[in-house]
């Protein structure tokens, strides 16, 4: 406290500065419910998962401490390596394609045209469907002999495809389902961004004689970038954790051709009941997701700065 | 199959295959009573979980009958097969399963459930006259099914419910059109399948499971026809890369690759059933439980045209069809074992087991349904269905090895088989799969 202020405040306060109440201590109990929930549903499961991952443990069998053996085994497990590779390929395709199509659809639906509202509603319908129901319907359509897709191909003179019934085409076909299902979400996010853009830069560009492409490239895209990055983060997380669609349609097959980390993990935990090894997979998968999330958040930060 | 009448078949079935197990004397004495109090546990509530199947749906439809009989309320849960198997294991492992009665797939979970002693031994319940109705008559259960449900240590921890035999379904119309006889060997069947194919009508000679895991039971059907027959030997060592195993793999490969529809690599039983029901495949080897949907006029284009036969023979001296089965057990942790046992007695009683048989819902574990000629005569299933059932029961042999990690076995071997459909060398694939699974089996056997 400055000297003049102390004089003005009076002798008592000048002698001993007034103590601020200790809010932290007074309200500490209010934190307890939240802390209990965090410990119960986040911290404890994680610590328990780490504990289980250090054991050779099959459900119904004996539990044996093995330290880091499960992790060593995991890093030399070719099947897990392939599952990681497939997950990354699937994620890349299931992010890039909806992003491109979603952006194009958003630009299209941003323009005014008759029945635009109806068209927008129809476009976002797939997003509202339950993934398992969607997967079952697509499974029927993919049937090589009885499915409607091959019938449609035959109507336009194209040869039939094996869709999810071939190791060569299963990943692109599953991505097709993902694109159909989630492109509307990307479109909605970007459309929201487009609606918030200012009109002044476009008027200035028009006066300066900019073409539509130049306006898009130098005005729309930079201004939309924060929205695109948000959509990118959401899509990446969604694609990484994709399970229901793949499990219902292929169960990771044919063979192991569509076995992603999630399917591999599910098999280890709930088909082979190898919970120790499955827990090690969880820990490694979590590390991969954290790494990707950090990368995306760093990108987002850079976009903001730019 | 001409020359065998239904009456003969049923008599033979009842007498030779499903020979009633001589029930322990104490059980018979215990049941030598005339009055039984079905309402002893009225007011109680039990939880029951069964697999989604014609049997499970039957129990669901008739649940009220049990509640009216006993006054016991039943929370019945019907879960799809694969999810059900996983659910019960996870719940058992938790130490506090939510159910008092569960269906157990003997070919998948028997050893695991037995090893952990998760289910109670039902023999004391059977022997208790106050808990077992006189007409339950455990001796009515077929000896084969009782043995199948009995654990290695002699405990009977599930009551046999039903069997599933792999049989040959064929489209009578297609075979007659090409003048093809019902094959009796796998080689004959392959040649027949080639003749029956009609690409212009998108009709294929054969359809079968190609999907990893599900496909192992088709491969084991071929293996059962060899001299080796089994997948593990007497010393419980894995023998899935032997010449006989490779022959079975080659047979599997040629059937799925050469005479089955494109895309069979991803087919499970449901895709096979759909294709066969649409008349797009001439022959299909799978479980006998599919007869009901195939004969359903509302769903099937080939209802009334389906032929039934035992699976063809292999090159070996033995002739077997793959056997799978289920039992109903009571968790050791259940506090309502009495009401639970009442439920099992009702669900697997003579009356319900007869209805399973005559409605095509499944093959009962009891022998009395096969002796009820009057009820069977009224069934809408054709004569060759019952004849095939009887003949299959006589040659049935476990279609999967009785080991704890059986799902992992199916996964590893199934992947090898799937790869072979894609063109991989069968011997190489089976060698690789055997080497991969051997340490898993050895560890499991050490811990058992």
Automatic annotation (TrEMBL), chain B:
It is found in: Periplasm. Keywords: Signal, Transport. Transmembrane segments: none annotated. Its main location: periplasm. Belongs to the bacterial solute-binding protein 1 family. This is ABC transporter substrate-binding protein. It comes from Paracraurococcus ruber. Pfam families: SBP_bac_1. InterPro entries: Bact_solute-bd_prot1, SBP, TAT_signal.
């Amino acid at each position: 406290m400055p000297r003049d202020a102390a004089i003005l405040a009076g002798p008592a306060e000048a002698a001993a500065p007034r103590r601020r109440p200790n809010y932290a201590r007074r309200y500490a109990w209010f934190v307890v419910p939240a802390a209990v929930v965090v410990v119960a549903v986040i911290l404890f499961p994680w610590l328990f998962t780490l504990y289980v991952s250090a054991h050779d443990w099959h459900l119904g069998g004996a539990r044996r401490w093995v330290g880091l053996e499960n992790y060593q085994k995991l890093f030399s497990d070719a099947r897990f390596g392939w599952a990681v590779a497939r997950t990354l390929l699937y994620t890349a395709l299931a992010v890039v394609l909806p992003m491109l199509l979603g952006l194009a659809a958003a630009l299209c639906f941003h323009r005014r045209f008759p029945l635009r509202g109806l068209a927008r509603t129809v476009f976002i319908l797939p997003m509202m469907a339950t993934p398992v129901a969607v997967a079952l319907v697509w499974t029927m359509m993919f049937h090589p002999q009885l499915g409607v897709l091959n019938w449609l191909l035959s109507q336009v003179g194209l040869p039939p495809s094996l869709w999810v019934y071939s190791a060569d085409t299963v990943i692109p076909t599953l991505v097709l389902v993902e694109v159909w299902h989630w492109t509307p979400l990307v479109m909605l996010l970007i459309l929201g961004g487009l609606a918030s853009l200012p009109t002044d830069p476009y008027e200035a560009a028009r006066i300066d004689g900019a073409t539509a492409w130049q306006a898009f490239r130098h005005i729309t895209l930079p201004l939309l970038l924060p929205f695109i990055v948000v959509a990118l983060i959401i899509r990446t997380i969604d694609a990484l954790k994709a399970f229901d669609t793949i499990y219902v349609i292929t169960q990771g097959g044919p063979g192991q051709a569509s076995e992603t980390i999630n399917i591999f993990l599910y098999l280890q935990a709930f088909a082979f009941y190898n919970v120790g090894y499955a827990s090690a997979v969880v820990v490694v998968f979590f590390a991969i997701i954290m790494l990707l999330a950090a990368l995306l958040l760093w990108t987002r930060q850079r976009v903001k700065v730019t | 199959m001409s020359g065998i009448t239904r009456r003969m078949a049923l008599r033979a079935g009842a007498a030779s295959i499903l020979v009633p197990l001589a029930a322990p004397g104490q059980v018979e004495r215990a049941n030598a009573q005339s009055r039984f109090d079905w309402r002893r546990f009225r007011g109680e509530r039990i939880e029951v979980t069964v697999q989604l199947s014609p049997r499970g749906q039957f129990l669901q439809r008739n649940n009220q009958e049990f509640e009216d009989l006993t006054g016991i309320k039943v929370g019945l849960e019907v879960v799809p097969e694969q999810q059900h198997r996983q659910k019960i294991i996870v719940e058992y492992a938790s130490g506090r399963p939510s159910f008092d009665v569960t269906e157990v797939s003997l070919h998948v979970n028997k050893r695991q459930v037995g090893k952990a002693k998760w289910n109670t031994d039902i023999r004391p319940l059977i022997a208790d006259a106050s808990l077992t109705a006189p007409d339950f008559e455990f001796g009515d259960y077929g000896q084969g099914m009782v043995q199948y449900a009995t654990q290695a240590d002699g405990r009977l921890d599930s009551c046999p419910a039903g069997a599933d035999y792999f049989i040959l379904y064929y489209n009578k119309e297609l075979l007659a059109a090409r003048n093809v006889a019902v094959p009796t060997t796998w080689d004959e069947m392959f040649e027949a399948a080639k003749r029956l194919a009609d690409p212009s009508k998108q009709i294929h000679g054969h359809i079968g499971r190609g999907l990893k895991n599900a496909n192992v039971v088709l491969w084991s059907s071929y293996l059962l026809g060899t001299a080796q027959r089994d997948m593990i030997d007497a010393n419980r060592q894995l023998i899935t890369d032997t010449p006989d195993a490779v022959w079975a793999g080659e047979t599997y490969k040629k059937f799925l690759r050469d005479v089955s529809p494109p895309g069979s690599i991803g087919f499970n039983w449901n895709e096979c059933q759909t294709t066969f029901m649409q008349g797009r495949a001439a022959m299909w080897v799978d479980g006998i439980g599919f007869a009901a949907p195939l004969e359903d006029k509302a769903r099937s284009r080939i209802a009334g045209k389906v032929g039934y036969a035992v699976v063809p023979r292999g090159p070996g001296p033995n002739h077997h069809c793959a056997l799978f089965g289920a039992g109903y057990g009571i968790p050791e942790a259940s506090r309502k074992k009495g009401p639970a046992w009442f439920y099992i007695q009702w669900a697997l009683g003579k009356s319900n087991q007869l209805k399973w048989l005559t409605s095509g819902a499944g093959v009962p574990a009891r022998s009395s349904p096969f002796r009820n000629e009057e009820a069977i005569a009224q069934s809408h299933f054709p004569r060759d269905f019952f004849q095939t059932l009887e003949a299959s029961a006589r040659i049935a042999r476990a279609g999967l090895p009785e080991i704890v990690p059986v799902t992992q076995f199916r996964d590893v071997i199934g992947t090898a088989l799937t790869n072979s459909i894609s063109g991989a060398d069968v011997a190489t694939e089976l060698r690789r799969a055997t080497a991969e699974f051997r340490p898993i089996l050895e560890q499991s056997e050490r811990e058992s």
